[in-house]
Amino acid sequence: GLGDEFYRFKYSAPEDKALAQRIVGLLQGSGIESSLDEKRGIDHGTWLPIALMYPDADVPIVQVALKKGLRFEDQAATGKALAPLIREGYLLVGSGSSTHNLRVMGELMMFPDHTPEWMQEFEEYLKQTLEIEEPKKREEQLYSIMKHKTARQNHPREEHLIP
User: 90: left (phi > 0), else alpha (psi -120 to 50), else beta?
Assistant: First the structure.
């Protein structure tokens, strides 16, 4: 798992139940099954980037979970359903990482000046994909990114790549 400091860290951002309910409505209105889960805490994939941006925890956070199955198309549909919130001034953050292979991360931390070629290759492919100007072509390439020859080396599972 994560280091002890991650489990001790508390990031107590305010709730916004009205916004959470609105998000559920937007998702359901787009045909995406959705419900509130008031028992689940905020995942490190959510609080870590937000804590770096808003260290005073003074911005309400509503976490939206990934859809089961981890299909890129499903996650993109979620983003499209929530797009009206951006026009209203809300910040939508999709967090992830270009590499999340915990089996090799410890070794890489011991040699921080060395990035394996397979990591560099995947990161460059991801960057080129995200820079494709034509939206449909960019989406198609994103949806198939796990077919890249180094994808599974970088991401044994998709949940840390899919925003």
Answer: beta
Question: CA–CA separation, 50 vs 61, rounded Å?
Answer: 9
In this predicted model, what pLDDT tens digit does every residue of 86-112 receive, in sequence order? 999 998 887 777 777 667 766 666 666
Sorted by sequence, the CB contacts under 8 Å of residue 57 that are 6+ apart come out as: 11, 12, 13, 14, 51
AA identity, residue 131: E
Could you tell me the CA-to-CA distances from 123 to 110, 144, 145, 151, 156 in Å, in that order?
20, 15, 11, 10, 15
b/e 7-21 (16+ beta carbons within 10 angstroms → b): eeeebebeeeeeebe
Model pLDDT, residue 39 = 82
First and final CA of the chain: distance in angstroms? 21
CA distance 14 to 23: 16
Tokens of 77: 């549909």
For the whole model, what pTM was predicted?
A: 0.73
* Structure tokens given for 62: 């509503």
Record the tokens describing residue 86, joined without a space. Answer: 């951006």
